[in-house]
């Protein structure tokens, strides 16, 4: 099965440089060796049909409206040994603390700006900075309740944080469904490991949401706010509402009356106390943000400011995961916590800085350039793969609006074996992966043991986003005594 | 974990969890569309078999029988497409995406509604409806239908039955179930009365030209379309008189396919919903249905046909329509 497998100087999750399986992967490799290609084909079919019939799909924008696709699922799990996970967990916990302190500071005293740790113009120039939130106290001073930080492993085998998602990170439903499907497809493999459970995530999420409910509510009513069934992540919104046993509401289901938020039920209006909103700030309240938004609730921000409804995440958290602010996160950690960052950032050039910009323009063929206002793999230049014309076009854009761009060296993401189906037949081949763990910040910080391992299914590709042809695989965080 | 006195279940005073108006609307339509798809499938199966059994019918009568299926679904005019009428009706009612009353459209809409509320229906219901959806959506579905239409249509009927059984057995009998049941029985009563109305008129017109044995075959087909042949046989052995058939399917109290049975269940559902949400209020849909129920309960079978059976059926359809509008206004448009 692994006959044609090559490592090519990239860090491989399964095999060491000596082409031998890493110790914690040995049982997986043994088990895979017992299976024939037909066995794999059969299991893959089961997995595909399961995903389709359960409607575990996402919607692709720019495609026909409402085209549902299965998020391609890769059968070979990605394993993270206990000591590596411990490091990641500590790093992420540290990071979410710093990001929250940063939001609290930015919307109140702005000490970090006054002390010139972060240039003030970077904040005031950020579209994600919400002036409406200045001086607003949020419940229990928590801004980012749910964070998804993207980690990658470089050629040196070290984990780096590529970006934080402190607004409405998605993907956690696939983590849970991937695990459920894996248990169905490879029940025996689990017997050989002690894999840390992730199934309590919805419960932990609900506790996190309850933690910020207005104190007067003895029985807080909590709902997930979705933009509706045409949103790419609708499956997840519905999934989480179901798992938590709470209502899934759309903007049209909600109404503000007095200074309270209500939902329209068959029996009349019922008050809502907490919204886990999966709608961007811009669309939350047409009276406050985009007036053309049909997705939100007119007057919601007023209710929010009076403290009669809690929102998770808070409004304005985008300022902390802005790509232009990202390079300063290690400084934030130092500033607020007095610690060095446990998980390093990827080195980043900030085009708003003149020297950085010159360097970026001179080295466009070696860098990845990202627009600070886009996500999901859109608005990106992979300099080493792009044609000269594309690079020229990007150089023009950078010069026109330097603040909008950052650049990073091309990181050779680690690879993990994927089952590849080609006309010539099926075989294992290395594909690049990243890892998005989910962090909850409620009464305490809980890092879900695992996360979404996204796979760039095209050979050699470094872009793992689902909108760009990425897939995912189950991620197993191992208990201490494995291997 | 959390020390504050927070109770897990959010309930109102009556212990009934509130339900979003939009969700109630979707659940109700999900159920109606599944039921409608099942009826369409059954009408097509029975019509195909009928023509095999009835032997040589006059070509105009053949066409009229097929056209009457469109009338049941309130589609006026000629069927779309080319070729013989039968093939056109079979296509228009099965896979025509432009026709809102095709099996394809009904299953698609049922599934769309279910997708919008899948967190509140049971996983089993969702998976069954989604499986049924993919059954008609796969690339060769239409081809399968052209080649083996009976198998295909029976799979739709069984899929609907399975879905309804799962709704019965996996969903708590709360508001969700009550609105599901309400939608199903409104649809069933309405479409059954339309089948009886159109067939009674058509067969009444031509009955003189048919031999008794052929007439029986036609009325047996009507009973099959209403899924009532066996129930009828046990009551009236070998007597397929048209009026008796119509009266049976209209007034029978214990047969789950009879109009009265469906209206009784619809009335029960609406009364339960009202009692949960507005125990002391007056519900317009309940009044409309209550009156209709009393009419059917105390009906003398003879009055069904005076002045005409068609008028009697239309009166039932009108009441169902009024009740459906009242439900919408009372519960869905909060």
Walk me through this protein's architecture.
By secondary structure, chain A is an alpha+beta fold. Chain A is 30% helix and 22% strand. Chain A has helices spanning 26-33, 37-53, 82-106, 111-114, 120-124, 172-185, 187-191, 201-211, 234-244, 281-284, 300-306, 318-321, 329-337, 354-362, 388-400, and strands at residues 57-59, 68-70, 73-80, 146-153, 159-165, 222-225, 247-249, 254-257, 260-265, 268-271, 274-277, 310-312, 349-350, 367-371, 380-382, 405-409, 415-422, 425-432, 438-441, 445-447, 453-456, 470-477. In chain A, strand 19 (438-441) and strand 20 (445-447) form a beta hairpin. In chain A, helix 2 (37-53) crosses helix 6 and helix 3 packs across helix 13. Chain B has 334 residues and is mainly α. Chain B has 14 helices and no strands. Chain B has helices spanning 21-54, 59-72, 85-94, 103-116, 123-137, 141-147, 149-170, 175-206, 212-225, 229-235, 242-251, 259-277, 284-297, 309-332. The longest helix of chain B is centred in the first third of the chain and has 34 residues, at 21-54. Chain B is globular. In chain B, 47% of the residues are buried. The interface between A and B is large, with 36 and 36 residues.
């Amino acid at each position: 099965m692994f006959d044609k497998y090559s490592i090519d100087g990239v860090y491989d999750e399964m095999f060491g440089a000596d082409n031998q399986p890493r110790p914690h992967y040995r049982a997986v490799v043994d088990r895979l060796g017992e299976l024939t290609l037909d066995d794999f084909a059969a299991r893959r079919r089961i997995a595909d049909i399961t995903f389709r019939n359960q409607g575990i799909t996402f919607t692709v924008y720019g495609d026909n409206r409402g085209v549902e696709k299965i998020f391609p699922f890769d059968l070979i799990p990605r394993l993270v040994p206990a000591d590596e996970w411990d490091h990641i967990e500590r790093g992420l916990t540290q990071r979410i603390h710093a990001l929250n302190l940063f939001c609290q500071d930015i919307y109140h005293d702005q000490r970090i700006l006054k002390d010139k740790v972060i240039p003030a113009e970077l904040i005031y120039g950020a579209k994600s900075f919400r002036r409406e939130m200045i001086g607003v106290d949020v419940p229990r001073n928590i801004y980012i309740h749910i964070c998804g930080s993207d980690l990658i492993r470089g050629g040196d085998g070290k984990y780096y944080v590529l970006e934080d998602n402190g607004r409405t990170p998605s993907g956690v439903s696939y983590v849970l469904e991937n695990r459920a499907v894996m248990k169905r497809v490879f029940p025996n493999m689990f017997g050989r490991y002690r894999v840390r459970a992730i199934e309590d995530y919805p419960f932990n999420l609900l506790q996190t949401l309850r933690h910020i409910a207005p104190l007067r509510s003895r029985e807080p009513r909590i709902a997930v706010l979705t933009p509706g069934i045409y949103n790419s992540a609708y499956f997840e919104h519905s999934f989480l509402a179901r798992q938590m046993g709470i209502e899934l509401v759309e903007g049209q289901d909600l109404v503000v009356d007095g200074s309270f938020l209500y939902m329209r039920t068959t029996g009349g209006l019922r008050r809502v106390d907490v919204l886990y909103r999966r709608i961007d700030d811009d669309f939350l309240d047409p009276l406050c943000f985009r007036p053309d938004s049909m997705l939100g609730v007119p007057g919601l921000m007023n209710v929010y400011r009076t403290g009669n409804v809690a929102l998770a995440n808070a409004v304005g958290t985008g300022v902390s995961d802005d790509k232009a602010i990202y390079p300063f996160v290690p400084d934030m950690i130092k500033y607020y916590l007095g610690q060095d960052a446990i998980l390093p950032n990827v080195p980043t050039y900030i085009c708003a800085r003149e020297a950085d910009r010159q360097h970026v323009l001179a080295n466009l063929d070696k860098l990845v350039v990202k627009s600070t206002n886009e996500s999901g793999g859109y608005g990106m230049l992979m300099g080493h793969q792009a044609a000269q014309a594309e690079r020229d076009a990007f150089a023009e854009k950078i010069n026109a609006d330097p603040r909008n761009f950052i650049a990073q060296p091309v990181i050779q993401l680690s690879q993990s074996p994927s089952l590849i189906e080609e006309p010539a037949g099926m075989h294992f081949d290395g594909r690049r992966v990243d890892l998005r763990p989910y962090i909850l910040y409620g009464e305490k910080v809980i890092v879900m043991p695992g996360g979404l391992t996204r796979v760039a299914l095209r050979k050699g590709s470094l872009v793992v986003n689902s909108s760009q042809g990425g897939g995912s695989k189950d991620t197993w965080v191992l208990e201490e005594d494995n291997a | 974990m959390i020390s504050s006195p927070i109770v897990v279940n959010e309930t109102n005073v009556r212990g009934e969890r509130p339900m979003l108006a939009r969700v109630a609307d979707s659940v109700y339509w999900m159920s109606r569309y599944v039921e409608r798809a099942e009826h369409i499938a059954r009408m097509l199966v029975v019509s195909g078999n009928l023509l095999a059994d009835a032997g040589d019918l006059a070509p105009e009568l053949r066409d009229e029988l097929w056209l009457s299926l469109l009338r049941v679904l309130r589609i006026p005019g000629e069927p779309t497409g080319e070729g013989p009428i039968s093939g056109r009706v079979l296509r228009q009612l099965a896979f025509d995406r432009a026709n809102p009353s095709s099996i394809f459209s009904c299953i698609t809409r049922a599934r769309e509604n279910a997708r919008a509320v899948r967190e509140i229906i049971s996983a089993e219901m969702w998976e069954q409806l989604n499986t049924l959806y993919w059954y008609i959506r796969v690339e060769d579905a239409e081809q399968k239908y052209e080649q083996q239409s009976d198998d295909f249509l029976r799979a739709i009927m069984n899929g609907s039955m399975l879905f309804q059984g799962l709704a019965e057995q996996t969903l708590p009998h709360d508001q969700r179930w009550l609105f599901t049941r309400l939608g199903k029985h409104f649809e069933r009563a309405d479409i059954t009365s339309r089948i009886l109305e159109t067939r009674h008129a058509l067969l009444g017109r031509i009955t003189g030209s048919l031999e008794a044995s052929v007439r029986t075959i036609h009325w047996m087909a009507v009973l099959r379309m209403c899924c009532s042949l066996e129930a009828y046989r046990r009551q009236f052995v070998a007597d397929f008189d048209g009026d008796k058939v119509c009266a049976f399917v209209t007034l029978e109290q214990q047969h789950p396919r009879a109009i009265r049975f469906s209206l009784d269940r619809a009335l029960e559902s609406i009364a339960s919903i009202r009692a949960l949400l507005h125990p002391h209020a007056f519900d317009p849909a309940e009044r409309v249905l209550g009156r209709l129920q009393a009419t059917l309960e105390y009906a003398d079978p003879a009055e069904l046909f005076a002045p005409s059976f068609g008028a009697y059926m239309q009166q039932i359809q009108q009441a169902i329509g009024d009740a459906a509008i009242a439900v919408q206004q009372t519960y869905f448009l909060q």
